[in-house]
């Protein structure tokens, strides 16, 4: 049976180290609304977009210049019946050097067409990976979601920290 997980790939004129560093800077390509560590094994961070989406992510594999894997520990979508669709899914970034270029293969393992959020998430990931991450690597500036001026993210971070 064919894998149905969302995937995207880009090839850039950059080193594997430059790609690895950019991936580990999701504030520079995904969202400025990220609290927590995003670089080392076992780091955890919280992503937040208004009151529409938030998730708690843990880095479960970090191989410098080769691979980064995020595991979704908690998730909330305002716009789906199942608010927790992403829980247990993984975002995998494989970094490969070939012919003087670097390829990044992204897979959101577990994000499948059966999910209610699939179309919206597919469009969002496509934009973040193929445009924002690429631009962060190649021109030094991505197009992340802007930082919101509210206390919701801080409250959420405090809630999750208290639960540990």
Termini Cα gap:
38 Å
CATH third-tier fold name? Alpha-D-Glucose-1,6-Bisphosphate, Chain A, domain 4
Largest sheet: 7 strands, antiparallel
What is the assigned CATH homologous superfamily?
A: START domain
Radius of gyration: 15 Å
State the strand order across the main sheet.
1-7-6-5-4-3-2
Strand content: 25-35%
Low-confidence stretches: 150-157, 159-164
What's the total helix number?
3
Helix content: 25-40%
The global form is globular
Describe what is shown at a glance.
By secondary structure, the protein is an alpha+beta fold.
How is this fold's topology laid out?
Blueprint (H helix, E strand, L loop, with lengths): L5 E7 L3 H8 L10 E3 L7 E6 L3 E11 L3 E11 L12 E9 L2 E9 L8 H22 L12 H12 L1
Antiparallel strand pairs: 1-7, 2-3, 3-4, 4-5, 5-6, 6-7
Please explain how this structure is put together.
With about 160 residues, the chain is an alpha+beta fold. It has a single domain (about 5-164), classed as Alpha-D-Glucose-1,6-Bisphosphate, Chain A, domain 4. The chain is built from three helices and seven strands. A seven-stranded antiparallel sheet has the order 1-7-6-5-4-3-2, sandwiched between helices. A hairpin with a 7-residue loop joins strand 2 (about 35) and strand 3. It is globular, with a radius of gyration of 15 Å. The protein starts with 5 loop residues before the first strand and ends with a helix.
Keywords:
alpha+beta, 3 helices, globular, 164 residues, 26% helix, 7 strands, seven-stranded antiparallel sheet, Alpha-D-Glucose-1,6-Bisphosphate, Chain A, domain 4, disordered C terminus
């Amino acid at each position: 049976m064919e894998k149905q997980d969302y995937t995207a790939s880009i090839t850039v004129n950059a080193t594997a180290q430059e790609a690895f560093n950019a991936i580990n800077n999701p504030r520079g390509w995904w969202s400025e609304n990220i609290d927590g560590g995003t670089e080392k094994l076992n780091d955890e961070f919280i992503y937040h977009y208004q009151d529409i989406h938030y998730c708690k992510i843990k880095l479960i594999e970090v191989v410098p210049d080769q691979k980064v894997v995020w595991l979704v520990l908690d998730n909330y979508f305002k716009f789906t019946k199942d608010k927790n669709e992403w829980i247990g899914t993984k975002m995998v970034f494989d970094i490969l050097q070939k012919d003087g270029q670097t390829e990044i293969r992204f897979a959101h393992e577990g994000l499948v067409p059966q999910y209610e959020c699939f179309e919206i998430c597919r469009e969002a990931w496509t934009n973040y990976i193929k445009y924002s991450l690429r631009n962060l690597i190649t021109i030094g500036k991505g197009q992340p979601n802007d930082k919101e001026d509210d206390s919701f993210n801080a409250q959420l971070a405090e809630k999750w920290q208290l639960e540990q």
